[in-house]
């Protein structure tokens, strides 16, 4: 009677370890196949990208660190996983990404456009009026992120949006 409970506990522990370690990609390696064979559908299943080595937090994801594999027929990639080059190009790992595992969308971020402590130009625009000031970023940010900046002249802390050119746009408050 104690043995079935022990087996159940072992199975539950194993399941918890597999979930904590990340979800493996049930796939076959397509490196031996040509792009024409994959495109022609001779290899049944969806082609996805997974890491071929450990990718550490803060590291930019490069194409050399990814491997294309084809999912085993009948398997589909889970929702919330980045598996296409468009989703991964230029992104930075927020946590350790293990080889042979899917990459969760929550485990990657855009590269910082401005670093913490960087000198930036801060702009306020209202109609034809534009005011600019020098500032220092208090946190890093990618394009579109809302970050805090210290105005160098007044010492006030303000919030602004990081623009694509690396400047900060502030609104009326």
Automatic annotation (TrEMBL):
Domain Flagella basal body P-ring formation protein FlgA SAF: 48-170
InterPro entries associated with the record: Flagellar_FlgA, SAF_FlgA
A Pfam family hit: ChapFlgA
Signal peptide from the UniProt entry: 1-27
Cell membrane found in the keyword field: no
Keyword annotations of the record: Bacterial flagellum biogenesis, Cell projection, Cilium, Flagellum, Periplasm, Signal
Domain of life: Bacteria
Subcellular location: Periplasm
Function: Involved in the assembly process of the P-ring formation. It may associate with FlgF on the rod constituting a structure essential for the P-ring assembly or may act as a modulator protein for the P-ring assembly.
Family: Belongs to the FlgA family.
Matches recorded under PANTHER family: FLAGELLA BASAL BODY P-RING FORMATION PROTEIN FLGA (PTHR36307:SF1)
Protein name (record): Flagella basal body P-ring formation protein FlgA
Species this protein is from: Mesorhizobium australafricanum
